[in-house]
Structures are given as structure tokens and as C-alpha cells.
Amino acid sequence: MDLLWPHLGGGAAANNLRQVLYVARRILSPAGGFNYLASDGESLVLRSGGELWVDVDVFEDAATTARNTLVPTAYQAALDLYARALLPEDLYEAWAQDRREGLRQLYLELLLGLAKLQEDSDEHGPAIHSLRKATAEEPTLEEAHAGLIRLHALSGSPEQAIAQYERFRDILARTLGTEPGEATRRLRDEIA
Questions:
Q1: Which DSSP letter does residue 87 get?
Q2: Which of 7, 123, 133, 173 minimizes the number of CB atoms within 10 Å of its CB?
Q3: What's the predicted TM-score (pTM) here?
Q4: How far apart are CA 67 and CA 105, in angstroms?
């Protein structure tokens, strides 16, 4: 209460907390079911009416399962759980930035892993789709661009492979003032 209403006395702050709790309960349990919020002295606590489902935990657990099993459907199930930015209404909250970036990196790792499994199974179209998602999320991700270049070439479209390289080179020059790594340049030269 001191954080929310530091200018109010104890009684007024407690009254405000009760009002906020009343509104929050109506939002979280509109049909009058289980109350997920309760006051405990001067604190507001979250109560679980059974198993508590936290999307970040479920996503991370699914990612672990996917990486342990190496099954494409497990990768896709984990990717489907990714909710994009953690706390999107609070994008600039410093305490959430590292966690948000960690989840984003895990999402990218899953996309790359799925693409590799798909490529290994000669499913070039789905692998290209997975890598395009990765480059949409992180336009400077060289591993994804190199995969796209390779897959276009393997699919019999060397012109698309070269065009992908040129797009990547332009992105790097524009955003980072750099160029693709040696391995990616060598791949482009082999295809050309």
C-alpha cells in the first residue's frame, strides 16, 4: 500500500486496496467463481484454485521437451506457445527486459532447431517457412539467412539463394554497418 498510495494514511490506503481488490476480482472471476486475489494484511496475494498455469513456464517446459525428443511436432507445439513479448503493456520495464530477451532467444533457437529437423527430413518448404519466421523475428540472424540460402539452392532455385544473400547483405549493411560472415560469403560464391 505504501508503494501505491504513499501520500495516504493507513486507513485510506487500506480502503483503496479493498476497492482495487473488488474490481480485480470482478475482472478475474466475472461469474463469481473462485477468487484468485486476496488481501493478506497490507499485501495483495495470488491464490491458486487448482493448478496454476503460467504461460512462460509452459513454453519453457515445452521447449525442453522439444529439444530432448527432437520431434518436429514437439517443436511446433512449443513454438505455438510463444506469446511474443513478455508483458507487452510494459515493454520498457527494466526488470522484464532480460527475461523477455531470453524467451525471444529461446523462440529463435526453436525455429532454427525445427528448420534443421525439417531439412534433415528433406522437407525444404517447411524448413524455409521456419527460417523465414526466424528472420522476421530477428532480421540480422545469420544462421537463419544462411539456412535460407542453402535451402533455396538445394530446392533448385539458385537465383532465390543469391537474392536471399543480397537481402541479408543489405540488412546487415543498413542496420549494423557490417557484412555477412566468411562462411555465408563462401556459400554464396559456391552457389553462384
A1: S
A2: 7
A3: 0.74
A4: 14
